[in-house]
Amino acid sequence: MIDVKLGRMSPAEIERLRAFDRDHVWHPYAPMPAAVPPEVVVSASGVRLTLADGTELIDGMSSWWAAIHGYNHPELNAAVTRQLGRMAHVMFGGLTHPTAVRLAERLVDLTPEPLTTVFFADSGSVAVEVAIKMTLQYWRSQGRPERHRLLTVRGGYHGDTFGDMAVCDPVNGMHQLFTDVLAKHVFAPPPPLGYLAEPDPAYLEELRRLAAAHSGELAGIIVEPIVQGAGGMRFYAPEYLQALRELADEHDLLLVLDEIATGFGRTGEMWGCDHAEIAPDIMCVGKALTGGYMTMAATLCTDRVARGITSGEAGVLMHGPTYMANPLAASVASASIDLLLSRDWRDEVDTIEAVLTAGLDGAADLPGVRDVRVLGAIGVIEAREPVDVPAVQKIAMDHGVWLRPFGRLVYTMPPYVCTQEEIEQIADAMYAIAETL
User: Whole-angstrom Cα distance, residue 269 to residue 262?
Assistant: First the structure.
């Protein structure tokens, strides 16, 4: 049993739980049964996770980039509790509710001006799926069904559903097993690495060539702005994003930006597209939307897109999740946005960037390190070879930090509310890992 006072479990109970988990619970991107037992978390508060044996770890991952305010936040707890006393859920077909409308108002106010319509989804993957469907259905509604492909770039990741997998990196991504059954889209090379790098004229010309060659069959362009997340944690210059906006305008394509990982301040601007001072036609948001409390995402679009779809043969957007606009999730999402805007989040993110930059200084010179990069509240060490995940995690835990590396990447996306000392501790753990690569 769990010791409620200490938040601990007995060794026997930990082992029983791990054994059942190993044999019956499938974890993300993991074999079955599990090859490595997961750590057992019994509580979380502030920026720390408490394990079943009482160990506390700074969460350098923000629970996959979502818990930007940390855990067990009293204002977010209160928002969920208040809403729970009214209703936990109600269908969104034919009904609406104040929490959904308030959240939509906040999102329309917070996102670039042309985005005026909000479609609520269950998760980031579904939000991207909806965005792809919007793009394709828009052109079908305009009598142009031949516009059924998307232009994107290698190195991207947009989710694990089938529409999303089709626009993820087809060679170095996580979905090669499904290549023969996925829709075929148009891929440009990955954007050249470096947020501050001078734009490569040859790369810009390749983008122009692909857009022109396929303009008659392209419905839109979809990318992650400025930062490519799970596809490689790559940062690229804003000029490439500006070029994609210009190409979309030139060839009358819809520009779709996947801001699920980059949104709500993670890159140092509220949205990744703000670095390039452009606006998309369709935008996906998620992850930090609810502050890590509940699963929820949204797909926003312009009036042109919404009215264009509605004027077509179906007369409606052909999508509708059961838990769309869930009141509990909508309530905590509004509270999370209010909480973010009530603080100097830019200063918090700038501090994380500065401390990670200083703490990782010199790591790029280590023999096993290929590159070190920091942007906003994101720090990345890229190894020359794939990392030993269990070994790397042990080093991080020995330093009191939770990290979850993948491939050749050891990275952090910490909660914004971390103190300078906590960010230094994360950087120390990453540097110690780099010394062993």
Answer: 9
DSSP-assigned beta bridge partners for residue 410? 381
Residue 173 marked in a binding site: no
Q: Is 64 part of any known ligand binding site? A: yes
Q: Is 157 marked within a binding site?
A: yes
Residue 419 is labelled as binding a ligand: no
CA dihedral for 316, 322, 327, 329, sign (positive or negative): negative
Question: pLDDT-based confidence at 2, cuts 50/70/90?
Answer: very low
Token output for 13: 């109970």
Instruction: Quote the tokens at residue 183.
Output: 């829709």
| Secondary structure of residue 163 in the 3-state scheme | helix
CA–CA distance, 205 with 209 (Å, rounded to integer): 6
Q: Is 125 within any annotated ligand binding site?
A: yes
The 10s digit of each residue's pLDDT in 114-129 is 999 999 999 999 999 9
* Sign of the torsion formed by the C-alpha atoms of 182, 185, 191 and 195: negative
Tell me what pLDDT residue 4 has. Answer: 42
**How many Å apart are CA 306 and CA 191, to the nearest integer?**
30
Q: At what angle do helices 345-359 and 420-434 cross, to 10 degrees?
A: 30
Give the per-residue pLDDT at 7: 66
- Catalytic (active-site) positions: 29, 157, 258, 287
Handedness of CA 47, 52, 55, 59 (dihedral sign): negative
**For 124-145, how does the pLDDT look when each residue is reduced to its tens digit (9 = 90+)?**
999 999 999 999 999 999 999 9
Looking at this protein, which amino acid is placed at residue 338? Answer: D
> Which of 186, 203, 288, 287 is CA-nearest to residue 237?
203
331-350 b/e (C-beta count within 10 Å ≥ 16 → b)? bbbbbbbebbeeeebeebbe
